[in-house]
Design a protein that fits this description.
With 473 residues, this protein is α/β, with parallel strands linked by helices. It has 3 domains: 180 residues, 3-Layer(bba) Sandwich (FAD/NAD(P)-binding domain); 111 residues, FAD/NAD(P)-binding domain (3-Layer(bba) Sandwich); 104 residues, FAD/NAD-linked reductase, C-terminal dimerisation domain (Enolase-like, domain 1), CATH 3.30.390.30. Helix content is 30%, strand content 26%.
Length: 473
């Protein structure tokens, strides 16, 4: 999908073909706008090719391995994993990615979006030069969607084998016998979980005083318990002092929360300490744009995601908080910008109602405010927490976990819902609607949850908060 060389004028130019960019392009084209999408690599971006999709494919394989262990240890099914055919696993993962990639390309082609391959550089607020291809001009707007890259720690240089980033961890050769993971956010926890399922000895180091530090404290506590139960050495409040490359791995010194210095030797050091926005080569100054001190391109108008330069909008990982740096948030940002440019009424993104999921074992899923955030904002809250093992289906799964709901005291609106346990990534949609629609516990308590299910625990918590509890004392 390319267009002829020369100068081309369109309604909208989108720079970056990741989730934020291609969603903007697809929606704008569906609304009758002439759209050009510039992408220097492959449409789909980090999420499709190096992040969300391949990592969740691998985590599904890990779940199957865990299921065999559970079958043997809990249910008397005498099954074992003889070995993991790494090549076959990778081939299945890559096939899933390739089919998704072809699907995105087909959607863009069907929508009439013209895709230009190459690196883009701004030359003015409405003009773009695609290196080696052509100059482009936008009648209405330019949308910046160039995504992010992994952050690295000083002194660590990834080599794709002994030191890897979250972008290339899945593509490193083979399965290591031991891994040191730096970073206890969602990405680090997921990689720690995957490698443990595949038999590796795993040490997880997080500088904050708890893992997944942006989540509710009870989520961190239950997740830590679940990971430790699986044999992962979780070191919160710890930091890397230094790391030495060995012929076949790394030797690192870690300062623990107690002030002790530990030496950790591992086949692989996986760095997952966050992501940084990518603006290099864009020449933002040519369009009158600047970044903030963290490298983000902040909008002047969050209701339109428009920068201080009229006609230049931004979506995805270039946005600072409260944007979440999540693919599904980028989809909503893309819809908002496209509809804004087409003159279609569109509500601003409600980031509090965007779900957050960690696909580890156990999983976490949350939406809305944590208990601490709610109290810090001056809310008087009513909180109820229920272990998943308090319902029959939770006992069947046997993985622990919990449901926690934070609501305004006195029967007021639900402010946040927090889940830990098996399959909670598939359970959060209900809570997303509850928080997004400003529902109250009594509103939810009127609706019957199927028995026996894991989601029954969600219903039980709302029944309790509404004064109609059945199985909670």
């Amino acid at each position: 999908m390319t267009i002829d060389t020369g100068i081309h004028t369109s309604d909208v130019i989108v720079i970056g073909g990741g989730t934020g960019g291609y969603s903007t392009a697809l929606r704008a084209a569906s609304l009758g706008l002439d759209v050009v999408l510039v992408e220097r690599d492959k449409v789909g971006g980090t999420c499709l090719h190096r992040g969300c999709i391949p990592s969740k494919a691998m985590l599904h394989a890990a779940e199957l391995v865990d299921g065999i262990a559970e079958a043997r240890e809990r249910w008397g099914v005498k099954a074992t994993v003889d070995s993991v055919d790494w090549g076959a696993l990778v081939a299945t993962r890559d096939d899933i990615v390739a089919r998704n990639h072809k699907g995105v390309e087909a959607h863009l082609a069907h929508a009439g979006v013209r895709v230009v391959r190459g690196g883009a550089r701004l030359t003015a607020p409405r003009t773009v030069r695609v290196e080696g291809v052509q100059d482009l001009t936008a009648r209405r707007a330019i949308v910046l969607a160039t995504g992010s890259r992994p952050r690295m720690l000083p002194g660590l240089v990834p080599d794709g084998r002994r030191v890897v980033t979250s972008d290339d961890a899945l593509f490193a050769p083979g399965l290591p016998a031991s891994v040191l993971v730096l970073g206890g956010g969602a990405i680090g926890v997921e990689y720690a979980s995957f490698h443990r399922s595949m038999g590796a000895e795993v040490t997880l180091v997080e500088a904050a005083d708890r893992i997944v530090p942006l989540e509710d404290a009870d989520v961190s506590r239950h997740l830590t318990r679940g990971l430790k139960k699986r044999g992962i050495d979780v070191q919160a409040g710890a930091r890397l002092l230094d790391a030495e490359l060995l012929d076949d791995g790394v030797r690192a010194r870690v300062r623990t929360a107690r002030g002790e210095t530990r030496t950790v030797t591992a086949d692989r050091l996986l760095v997952a300490v966050g992501r940084a926005p990518v603006t290099e080569g864009l020449d933002l100054a040519a369009a009158g744009l600047t970044t903030d001190e963290r490298g983000f391109v902040a909008p002047a108008d969050w209701n339109r995601l428009e920068t201080a330069v009229p006609g230049v909008h931004v979506v995805g990982d270039l946005l600072p908080p409260p944007s979440l740096g999540l693919a599904h948030a980028s989809f909503e940002e893309g819809l908002l910008v496209a509809e804004t440019l087409a003159g279609v009424p569109s509500a601003p993104v409600d980031y509090a109602a965007v779900p957050r999921v960690t696909y580890s074992s156990p999983q976490t899923a949350s939406v809305g405010l944590t208990e601490a955030e709610a109290r810090a904002r001056g809310h008087e809250v009513a909180v109820d927490t229920m272990p998943l093992t308090a319902v029959a289906k939770g006992m069947v799964h046997g993985q622990g976990g919990m449901v926690k709901v934070v609501a305004e005291a006195g029967g007021g609106q639900v402010l946040g819902v927090h889940l830990v346990g098996p399959h909670v990534s598939e359970m959060i949609a209900e809570s997303q609607l509850i928080v997004g629609w400003d529902a109250e516990p009594a509103d939810v308590a009127r609706h019957v949850h199927a028995h026996p299910t894991l989601s029954e625990a969600v219903g039980e918590v709302f029944l309790t908060l509404a004064g109609r509890g059945l199985h909670q004392q």
